[in-house]
Amino acid sequence: MDHGRFGSAFSEALTARSMSLGALHRSLEARGVRVSLATLSYWRSGQREPEQAGSLRALAEIEQILLLDPGALESLIERRRRRVGDDVLADLSEDHEAIRSMLAQLDFRSPSDRLVDREVTLKYEIGADGAPLRSTYVVVVESIQPQADRRASVLRIRPGAEPPRITPLGGYHLGEVLHDRERGIVVGEMLLDRPLVVGETALLEQEVEYTTPDPDDNCYFYWAVRRMTSVSLWIRFHPELVPARCEHYTILDGEEQVEELETFGSSVSRTVNGFGPGTLGIRWHWS
User: Fold this and answer.
1) How many percent of the chain have pLDDT more than 70?
2) In the chain, which ranges are E strands?
3) What distance, in Å, lies between the first and last C-alpha atoms of the chain?
4) Are 253 and 138 within one domain?
5) What tens digit of pLDDT does each residue of 249-281 get?
6) What would the DSSP string read from start to end of 217-250?
7) Whose CA is closest to 77, among 277, 283, 223, 246?
8) What are phi and psi for residue 97, nearest 5 degrees?
9) Which pLDDT value is given to residue 78?
10) Residue 8 falls inside a structural domain
11) Which of 3, 35, 90, 115 might form a disulfide with 8, Cβ 3.0–4.6 angstroms?
12) What span, in angstroms and rounded, lies between the C-alpha atoms of 44 and 3?
């Protein structure tokens, strides 16, 4: 029987850990995760794959139990690969239709239909007037398609603002860039220095300089359209203008959770491991 990529990888991971389905089932129950033994058997055989939010959360626990990298099994789900663009964009942004249309103009179905983000570090710099100056983005991408040679970058800026200056700093050069001025959406084409084979990773870095001052801006966030190994946000303020308080927030399955953050000198940061799909951000308040 052809188990498919997901079923085969799941079966191999169980074998590598010398763990039976029964033992895995008991480990999940001990963590408060409810999934039937029959369902686990279907997943291992490749007859079915996790689809619903509860099943995907259970799969994240399975990856931990089997000592796999976050997303190692989820990235192999065939239905998930096909549907991630439609379903997750709709969950992450109310402008998902406009974003999807702009992606289609550049021949993308989703931001991650060829390359998926595995780890990302984002730095956001705020000037003395409280307006953002620039952001720097370093991402580890992994190819999920043969000869993957480009990815899409989706940026949000203030509606009506001039488009930012995007500068490649390593791993790619910039292709076509689209700007929806009314909604404040920028979609860019990142053309890799060479194609990647399936499973190969690469580091990409870019800088974005904001050309229209926006002192009312008080948050920075990242959309994780798939499960990430780690997401790091680092907000750097001008030494003479440090906010009164900061908070870290996540939005998962439409539910927002907020946690206060303490500044470190004139900056604030947050790193989350095993995150997504969802939104992770930092807000700051001047008073």
Assistant:
1) 93
2) 115-126, 132-143, 148-156, 165-170, 172-180, 185-196, 201-209, 219-224, 228-236, 245-252, 255-261, 267-275, 278-285
3) 63
4) yes
5) 998 877 888 999 999 999 999 999 888 888 899
6) --EEEEEESS-EEEEEEEEE--TT---SEEEEEE
7) 277
8) -65, -45
9) 64
10) yes
11) 3
12) 8
- State the Cα–Cα distance between residues 106 and 113, nearest whole angstrom: 12
CA distances from 61 to 7, 25, 44, 70 (A): 16, 11, 15, 9
Q: What's the CA gap between 129 and 207, in Å, rounded?
A: 20
User: Could you give the count of Cα atoms lying within 13 Å of 197 in the half-sphere of its Cβ?
Assistant: 0
What pTM value is reported for the model?
Answer: 0.69
Task: Compute CA distances 166 → 89, 175, 178, 209, 214, whole Å.
Answer: 23, 11, 12, 7, 17
- Residues 184/160, Cβ–Cβ less than 8 Å: yes
In one letter, which amino acid is 189?
A: E
Distance CA 102, CA 155 (A): 12
Cβ partners under 8 Å of residue 198, min gap 6: 143, 144, 145, 146, 148
Q: What is the mean pLDDT of residues 113-131?
A: 92
**CATH number for 147:** 2.60.40
Q: What is the pLDDT of residues 150-204, one digit of tens each?
A: 999 999 888 888 999 999 999 999 999 999 999 899 999 999 999 999 889 999 9
Tokens linked to 140: 């580890």
The candidate with the shortest Cα–Cα distance to 203, out of 118, 261, 282, is 118
* Residue 132: pLDDT over 60: yes
CATH number at 9 reads: 1.10.260
Handedness of CA 240, 248, 270, 215 (dihedral sign): negative
Range of the structural domain that residue 108 is part of = 96-285
SS3 content of the chain, % helix, strand, coil (to 5): 25, 40, 35
